[in-house]
Amino acid sequence: LHQLTSANMPCVQVLRHVPGAQTNYVGTDNRLGTRLATEHLIERGHERIAFVGGDADTSVAHDRKAGYLDAMEQAGLPPRLLLCPNTKVASAGIVQAALLADAPPTGFVCFNDPTAMGAMSGASRAGQRPGHEVAIVGFDDIGDAAMTFPSLSSVAVQPQALGEAAADLLLKRIASPGGPPCRIITP
Length: 187
Fold this sequence. Notes:
Layout: H1 2-6, E1 12-14, E2 24-28, H2 30-43, E3 49-52, H3 59-75, E4 81-82, H4 88-100, E5 107-110, H5 113-125, E6 135-140, E7 153-156, H6 159-175, E8 183-186
């Protein structure tokens, strides 16, 4: 990014931003999304809610964990981070183990939909039915989320709107490269 900015090359970071980079950025409000997902479970009576996945050192992982932690702190509930790679296999194993332990979570807020799909599998392996004995919420609302049984609840990010905003911003920067970096966050 330093080479691009020093060469005055128009660029737009999309979805993940590099901290400290003085470039244009378009992304979704990851912190708000996981806060809302966590609040959704709290409003339904869950008190033992775990966050699953998000062990990567990316802006998205930091923001999604922060949203979960914000909601848990505001509700006065102890957080439980089940950090693992954002894969179905990893999340299935960590959720199964968590559900077989003492005082298991009754709800899971997952880093993304594949992580949530793995969590659903892990819950089933632990004898818990997703949507019945345990609640699971994903993030990104990918097409496959509707194909699970039961259908996965997920935070929608509207990828087409993100792509359009990024393309519009890049075209503006190509036409007029000057000016301070622009940051667009979609709900």
